[in-house]
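We append the chain.
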Amino acid sequence: MGLADASGPRDTQALLSATQAVELRRRDYHMERPLLNQEHLEELGRWGSAPRTRQWRTWLQCSHARARALLLQHLPVLVWLPRYPVRDWLLGDLLSGMSVAIMQLPQGLAYALLAGLPPVFGLYSSFYPVFIYFLFGTSRHISVGTFAVMSVMVGSVTESLAPQTLNDSTINETTRDAERVRVASTLSVLVGLFQVGLGLIHFGFLVTYLSEPLVRGYTTAAAVQVFVSQLKYVFGLHLSSHSGPLSLIYTVLEVCRKLPQSKVSTVVTAAVAGVVLLVVKLLNDKLQRQLPMPIPGELLMLIGATGISYGMGLKHIFGVDVVGNISAGLVPPVAPNTQLFSKLVGSAFTIAVVGFAIAISLGKIFALRHGYRVDSNQELVALGLSNLVGGIFQCFPVSCSMSRSLVQESTGGNSQVAGAISSLFILLIIVKLGELFRDLPKAVLAAIIIVNLKGMLRQLSDVCSLWKANRADLLIWLVTFAATILLNLDLGLMVSVVFSLLLVVVRTQMPHYSILGQVPNTDIYRDVAEYSEAKEVPGVKVFRSSATVYFANADFYSDALKQRCGVDVDFLISQKKKLLKKREQLKLKQLQKEKKLQKQAGPLLSACLAPQQVSPGDKMEDATANGQEDSKAPDGSTLKALGLPQPDFHSLILDLGALSFVDTVCLKSLKNIFHDFREIEVEVYMAACHSPVVSQLEVGHFFDASITKKHLFASVHDAVTFALQHPRPVPDSPVSVTRL
């Protein structure tokens, strides 16, 4: 009995329905789209729901994994904080954070004055950006916050857009400060947008165009700018606002002119504070190994100077300028003034690049020292978010400080937990203790700034070291320093970057050219002028350039090649053309003379001189014989036949191992070299080309019937061996290279 009989009609119908559903699923899997009725659709829905659910689940899992990877990439704190070794690192980070906060407090107050803002905004800039960098940064040791170079750049912008005087009338100080805070916070937002945008599109390599001599020259000039800007607080002078090119010169001249108006009490206060700070720093350097942490000279100076000022009444009795009211508590977020974007865009981009350059250079130094990696693109994003969020909370642009970073590392800091602790300590001061420093003299803050410039001003000694090491780098340093001093910080940076790039171009225009010789019994070829053992291969010249050949140095390459080969190629070619042209003119005159004689002799003489009739076969034999004789006869167009001197080599090999790319000018120059040297009976070969260069030669249609890949060799030795076996070029066809 069959299966259908045993199971009954219902089972048979169910089996057929199941078979139809399986077939529908198979056809749907193979993307077949038949016309389906309602019954088939219901059956397909019952059988096909599970795979579609699995597809949605897989897609959600992949999306979740990508989102998680993206989150971990741009929020590094989620990666390292769960694995934070509390027992090993917490104590060191706690001491380091307290030490950095002790430095951050006076520097924040001082650098706010440097930026042209009330001191409390320096404390805000020491809290918000530091905590944001704790979440997004990848360096474990740099101390983000206020920095002298960034502050003076911000100060140049705030003073130009919100000056002290307007139309010879003094502006109300409260109104002026409010406008400067608005400008500085908007500038910080714009700087953050630039940095975040550059980081997201992976433009972290942009800082590679700022070489070390450029950065050191720029920071040294910025230190001079900072020093000059603090002279008004040291001498108690009221100066006019100067901005733009030569503003530093105008400020120095005005200070010199107003020196007789200096306040003795202010000068004495600044001098005493500066001497005490220098003594404390010298003690810290001497007792570095004995002290568990540096003596907080700046904090002690703040406390002592505030107490003395309050007790002796320096402001009321002696007329010493003090910080004034410091409001307690945090300020609410404020939207940036977008109308200022057009005025700030140039300065914002410059500050963004400079701030990132300083941070990434310090970050890479510490990362190399402690064996971890710093992501330059993520650093851009972290700094950008620090400035972006800080700008919304009325902070000015920040970067990292070299002195605080060194303290954070030397006092046992292992991670950015130290930065978070320092920011929380600053928060405590903002909320509860900030108003205690209202009687702090501004001259003391100026002394703190000037003493902290000691490290950057020491970079003036780079002039002596670079003079001995590298004159080109010294030139970059001097041009950067002079441009920054004379043209201000933003224009100075632009000029220095353009100059350094132009210097690179000029240096590639004048590379080292050399004729190579073979070291005996080896396949090594070296410059015969530098290696006495290297000897030229007889009959072969090997030429090498130390730089790639491109539009800026292609002519120099050709000229140096002809000069080093010891043959005046252009003279030989011109003489050869003159002699060949003269020979053609003589032949033409001779033919004209023969025609003239034939006309004078008349028809009778022509009949007598007419050749006898010959058969076509005889004509062919005579032509063949004449052709054989002509082929055996020497070519009258050779240098030897023309009586011109011949080169003492038959082959020229171009060592192109230094080429990293070729452009159209390079292609034309190489083709002209082939043409010119073949004109003087020298065959040209190329050696040691890299694969990308060969591909570019093919794309540029360099190879043709006269220049084939048979002229290309993997090494100089292979080319020399081939040239010695083929001392004279024997072209397969009479095609010649056309000079371009």
The chain has a mean pLDDT of 83. Residues 309 and 439 are 6 Å apart (CA to CA). The longest strand covers residues 513-518.
